[in-house]
Structure formats: C-alpha cells, structure tokens
Amino acid sequence: EPEVTQTPSHQVTQMGQEVILRCVPISNHLYFYWYRQILGQKVEFLVSFYNNEISEKSEIFDDQFSVERPDGSNFTLKIRSTKLEDSAMYFCASSERDRGGGELFFGEGSRLTVL
Amino acid sequence: GESVGLHLPTLSVQEGDNSIINCAYSNSASDYFIWYKQESGKGPQFIIDIRSNMDKRQGQRVTVLLNKTVKHLSLQIAATQPGDSAVYFCAEIGAEGGGNKLTFGTGTQLKVEL
Lengths: 115, 114
Fold this sequence. Notes:
The complex is a heterodimer.
Chain A: E1 5-7, E2 10-13, E3 19-24, E4 31-37, E5 43-50, E6 53-57, E7 65-68, E8 75-79, E9 88-95, E10 105-106, E11 110-114
Parallel strand pairs in A: 2-11
Antiparallel strand pairs in A: 1-3, 3-8, 4-5, 4-9, 5-6, 7-8, 9-10, 9-11
Chain B: E1 4-6, E2 10-14, E3 19-25, E4 30-38, E5 45-51, E6 56-58, E7 62-67, E8 72-77, E9 86-94, E10 103-104, E11 108-113
Parallel strand pairs in B: 2-11
Antiparallel strand pairs in B: 1-3, 3-8, 4-5, 4-9, 6-7, 7-8, 9-10, 9-11
C-alpha cells in the first residue's frame, strides 16, 4: 500500500536553530499538508499546498514557517528559528483530491524537540 | 469559536463487545466528517467518513452515525478487538473552507480489555 514517508523520525534542536522536516507524499497525490500535534493534544492544521503554492494556512503558520516542494517528490517544512513551543509531532499528509474528495493519508510523523 | 470535541477522554471495553465513541461539533456549516485512529507513535489513520447529506455509513466492523440536529457524530466498532486499542479522533471540514483543512477533536482513548 502506498504511504507517506517522513524524515527524520525524531530531531532534537536548540532554540533559535533552523529545522527542516522532510516528507515524500504518495506519488500521484496533488495536495499536500502539514499538521502538528503537541504532546497529549489534538492534531492541528498548519498549511495546505497545491500547485506549488500555499492554499491555506492557520494562525500557527507564521513567518517562522515555510513550505517548499523542491523537486517532484519531496515536500518540506522549514522552521526558521525554533522556539520551545514548537516542540511537537509534525505530520505530513497528502491526498489525491480536494475537499474530502479523497482520503487524506498521514505519515508517521517527525517528532521535534526544542531545548 | 468553531470546535470539534469529544465527550469522553477514555473508553474501556471488553474484547468482543461493541464500542461507541462520541463526538460533538459546533460548526453547523460542516459538511464532511471523518474518524481517524491513531496508534501510539503513529500518524492518524483514516477509518471512515460521512458527508452531511447522510446520517449513517457502514464499513467493515465500523459504523458512523451523524445527527445534524444535535451536531453529534458517533463511531461504532463491532466486536472490538485488542488491535482496536488506540486514540480515536473525529475531524470535520467546514463547507466554507477549502481543501482538506481538517479540524480535529481532542481524541478518545479506547482500551480493549481481554
């Protein structure tokens, strides 16, 4: 079964450092997303991406965050200057269609720990 | 603000019994609902979905019921198995929004006792 893969599985970084989380969405999917989950809390939407541009972003997704699809397979989330409160599990997701027209597949997540 | 919330944080059931996990939502404009299962250390896994023009949908061992009048969603798992132990989230997409921007509930931990 096709799957979304994410790297690294766990990253520990110092506050103020830049972090890049990588995702390989399912190959025929066109819509890409990042969500995050702070430990013990619910999953929160960060950003959606289609046709090489951001479709929608949440209030969490401020100027410290950026996304990019540098080639035909990778989808990255960059946090420019990490803060303690950025510590969370970050999930990448992809779907074939928009607006609930297709199942949203999630990766297994990248755990970010900011010290 | 708009929210999707769950009634119970933890549900314990005996193996073989049926499980019912409930969810309340507040956005009356929501038109698509999904149940996800999240096992420890893994990402959310799609279980079943339902559109607002339906009130019931069945899958393999799972049934989702939607009551738009009281803005309530439930997930029924038949003959619960140890492998069903996980956190279950309901999620919704509002009609006014775009894409697959999901609003998740806080989750219910399902524990299956042998």
